Amino acid sequence: MRAILLGGGLSLILSLVATRYTIRFFTKMGYGQEIREDGPTSHHTKRGTPTMGGVVIIGASVTGYFAAKLITWTAPSASAWLLLYLFVGMGVVGFLDDFIKIAKQRNLGLRSKAKMVGQTVIAVSFGALALSPWLEDENGRTPASEKVSFLREIDWLALPAGLAVVLIWLIVTATSNAVNLTDGLDGLATGSSVMVFGAYTLMNIWQNNQFCQTDPGPLCYNVRDPLDLAVIASAITGACFGFLWWNASPAAIFMGDTGSLALGAALAGLAILTRTELLLVILGGLFLLETVSVMLQVTWFKTTKKLTGTGRRVFRIAPIHHHFEMLGWEQVTVVIRFWIITGLFVATGLGVFYAEWVSRL
Description:
With 361 residues, the protein is mostly helical. Helices cover 67% and strands 2% of the residues.
C-alpha cells in the first residue's frame, strides 16, 4: 500500500514541476500545435501552444513507479513490465506523430497506415508476451488470459491463443484511438483519465485484498499481479493530475498524441491484465461515446452521399465535444459537463464491480 501512495504522490509532484519547465523548453524550440482548419474558429487562437506534453506524463509515471519500488525495496512484476512497455511503446508512436506535425508544420503527422503499423507492432507483441507461458507465476497464471472477461474471466468464452492476441490488439488500438479522439479540448482527456485510472487503482487494491493465492474461488480474483498494477495506475493518475494544472483551460500545453495514445493503451492494458476487458466499456464510456460519434458521422455522410449525391451529417462536427461548441457552449462548459459524464460512468462501473462481488457472498 505504501508503494501505491508513493507512486501516485511522487508522479504528481514530478509532473506538476516538470511540466512548467517543459512548457518553457518547447516554447523556446517552437514545438507548437497546429490546429485543424475545419474545427471551431475559437481554437485558432491555440495555434502555437506547446504540444507533446505527454512526454511529461509518461516520464513522471515511470519515474514515480520505479521510485516507489526502490523506496519499498520490491521488484517489478511481469505484469508491470508489460504494462509499462505498452504505455511507453504507444507513447513513442504518438511522439513520432507529433514530431512530424511540428517538423512539417501541418495538422497531419504519421500517415494512417504507418500509425496503425506502429500501434499493431506494440499491441501484438504485448499480447503475445502477456499470454506467453514463459511469464507464468508459481501458480501457472499468465499476465493476460485467453478467456474473455467482464468482471472476471468468463469460463465458457475461452479463445484460441491466436484469436486472443487479435482481441488484445483490437482492445489496445481501439482504446488508444478513442482517448486520442477525446483529446480535443483543454483538460478534457486529462481530467477524464484521472477518474478512470483512479478507478483502476481502487479496483486493483480490491483485487489484491481478495486475491486467489492458490486456487481460484467465487469470492477471489484470478489476477497475476494486482498490487503492482495498482502502483502503476496510481502513478499515472498522479501524473495526469499534475499535468492537468497546466492543461486546464486555457491550456499552457497539450499532451498531444504522445500522451493520448499512451494513456489509451495503458487503460486497455489495465483492463486486459485485470480481467475486466468488457467493464472498460462502462468505465471509459466517454471515450466510447466520442468514438461512436465519429463513426456515426462518417458512416451517415458516406451513405447519404452515395444515395442522394449530397453528404449529410448527424452532428455539426465530430467528435461530439466539438458539436456542442458549435452549438454555442463555452469550452469550459463542455469540458466540465463531460467530466461529470465520465464521473457517472466511473461510478457505475465501480458499482457494478463491487455489486458482483457482494452478490457472490
